[in-house]
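Format notes (please read before filing issues)

Several people have asked whether sequences and structure tokens are stored in separate files. They are not. Every record keeps both together, in the order shown below: the sequence lines, then the token lines. Line labels are part of the format and must not be stripped during preprocessing.
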Amino acid sequence: MMESSQFLLAVAGGLFVIGLLGVVIRRNALVMLMCMELMLNGVNLSLVTFSQQRADAAGAVMVFLTFVVATAEVALAIPIVLLLVKHARSLDIDRFSELKG
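Then the structure lines:
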């Protein structure tokens, strides 16, 4: 049986890989944003696991900073996606290529 920290790192890696596949494969802007959040959660889980292994609070501080970045991403990305949907009438990323300047 795997040790709990090894199991948590495997789960974190799985979350990251699922998120990465979602970003690479899917073309829906909102699904891509959710997959990026899944990747960040995988990183957070690994940081907490390493912090627990070392009995150090540095990982928890990094998780807090990662949450701040994720919040800023959502706060900026969702309004941008909504404006793009209003303009292009689609969530497909390929439809947004005509907006290149």
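For reference, the curators noted about this record: The CA atoms of residues 32 and 95 lie 15 Å apart. Helices lie at 4-25, 29-54, 58-88.
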